Input
Amino acid sequence: MQAKVKGNTLILIISGDVDHHSSEIIKQIADKRIMENNIRNIIFDFSKSTFMDSSGIGVVIGRYKLVNMAGGRIAAVNINPTIDRIFVISGLNKIIERYDTVEDALMEYQKG
Amino acid sequence: MEKLYVELESKSENESLARVIVTAFAARLNPTLEEVSDIKTAVSEAVTNAVIHGYENGEGIIKLICEIDRDYIIVSIRDEGVGIEDIEKAKEPLFTTREADERSGMGFAFMEIFMDELYVESEPGKGTTVLMKKKIGIGE
Output
């Protein structure tokens, strides 16, 4: 996984399967960056991932709770059909903003 | 009827291995991409439950049995861990005993959604067996 910071937005480029094993790693990296860089918004980029189980839901909702208290926003981008089904069935769709690309999400955040 | 028996150490690294093994075996039924991801998700949920809840992230052996019976894939995942006190409660969507670990409580719900049949056998102190069945090739 790769983490990039743009202003007060953290971009998490998820690679490979998102399961219980990788979730723990994603959480550690994400939370370290959130603390260190005064992060307000998060973008989950799924362009390099094709699988997510219920562990991934916990990761996304957990990060949502972290930034939401401070008025931050969470988005998911580049979601393939398999991960899309998990988003729809779990109801993640209703709380997470979705855009096609990282740039689209960043543009939305800039509008405020 | 074809059968496959695998024993895995209870480690989070083996969750992906279990998914690969079951989907490689199920490939004999020529499943669609959607069916493959359904099986993958269900197996992932069951094995994760064994690792986190059954063995509480400690040592243990997870027994994986796969069967192909005509156009059905049958997957059984067994742990000799702590077992489940109230199976019906555990199956409720969003119910979790591990909220602090950010578990979503969707494991059994996903197994139910993505497979055709789900049976859970468990008793405190006696481990848990999850049996899942799915017909492959409905879309054809």
Observations:
- The mean pLDDT of chain A is 95.
